[in-house]
Amino acid sequence: MICMDYNPKQMAIREKVFNTIISCFKRHGAENIDTPVFELKETLTGKYGEDSKLIYDLKDQGGELLSLRYDLTVPFARYLAMNKVTNIKRYHIAKVYRRDNPAMTRGRYREFYQCDFDIAGQYDPMIPDAECLKIVHEILSELELGDFRIKVNDRRILDGMFAVCGVPDDKFRTICSTVDKLDKMSWEDVRSEMVKEKGLSEEAADQIGQYVSLQGGMDLAERLLQDAKMSQSKQACAGLTDMKQLFSYLQLFQVTDKVVFDLSLARGLDYYTGVIYEAILTQTGPVPVAAAQNGAGEKAEEGVSVGSVAGGGRYDGLVGMFDPKGRKVPCVGVSIGIERVFSIMEQKAEASAEKVRTTETQVMVASAQKNLLEERLRLTAELWNAGIKAEVMYKKNPKLLSQLQHCEDSGIPLVAILGEQELKDGVVKLRTVHSREEVRFSYTHSISEIKRRTLDV
Fold first, then answer.
1. Residue range 25-41, pLDDT digits in tens
2. For the chain, which end, N or C, has fewer CB atoms within 10 Å of the first or last residue's CB respectively?
3. Does the domain at residues 363-456 carry the CATH identifier 3.40.50.800?
4. 8-351 is classed CATH 3.40.50.720
5. Is 98 annotated among the ligand-binding residues?
6. Residue 272 in marked binding region
7. What Enzyme Commission number(s) appear in the record (predicted)?
8. Quick one: which H or E segment has residue 424?
């Protein structure tokens, strides 16, 4: 199955996740945009490194050659250049398409949502970058997915490292793509690919191996600035200086407990030019099915890697590729791996006894006797007109028990019951489904009374 259908329970979970993410994006002052689901093929070509083979091309029908969008970042860069936008903080939530091998346990499909937040514009170094990492921290904390860590690195540090380790210039990108596989493959397998498939010397591969095993924080950046080899690269030194600045801002944002400077992080996309980052869900204890199939292989005491749930970085040159005069707009952003988040949230919902509500109905209008359809419809209309979420059964004479059972099954908290005696007395009986407590109040005040009580449930 290349794509998925989603039932009401799954969609309720998805909507809750989207609301959490959008709320965070708006809290940080982001505006919303949209772009077409397909782009000119030439717009997408050459932007994704070895992953370009995963782009879906549309059959030529006598016009332009088109492809389905692979991500939201390249269309965003094209949007900035085409509309001459030089300054924006935007979010974009939409579907993207990849000719990948679907893996449902890992939240990987050929059609899936991405949730992107990007800051475009000329600003002082590392301030927007730090905010992107703060946003990842906020979203993962609010969703309560479990423990996580955010790995950061810098493309300039990687390129400087490759240079001082003896990697030829024309092999930087392809070796970077191989290093990017370290979260899925052992170092021995990565080294073998570098040497046997990519033609790198064993000596250069071994030197890379010494660096990509390093992890730390600001202290590691300071140490590498004093490193005999790394200090020879101006590019690496610029990246390391910015990394120190980044960690100083992250300390102010109070997120350094989850952020680690990791030299093995590569992110294979061609358009990154500076800081790159990736959020990994971790958990201690047995490896879950999803993690086992993801090839996670870290020690239990360090936490088991469940997989990447967010990633991003700085891409200062991408907009210039689409501008006729090559004008650049510096950009930095993050993409939330929403499908994997959905998978985890659905598994948590299945494991817990808590019922997932698929509607937001606040009150059911029910009748206790026959021939009260008109009265039920009249009260239901008044509730709708007052902005109250209400339902009524589509039967002339439903049984009261059936109506109450529907509320139990659907999680509707209140039932407004109309009966012959209630109509004679000019009252409405309101029942709280959970406690089965009942109160009566006059029909004329029923709307305001029900509205007040919906706030308490």
1. 999 999 999 999 998 88
2. N
3. yes
4. no
5. yes
6. yes
7. 6.1.1.21
8. helix 420-425
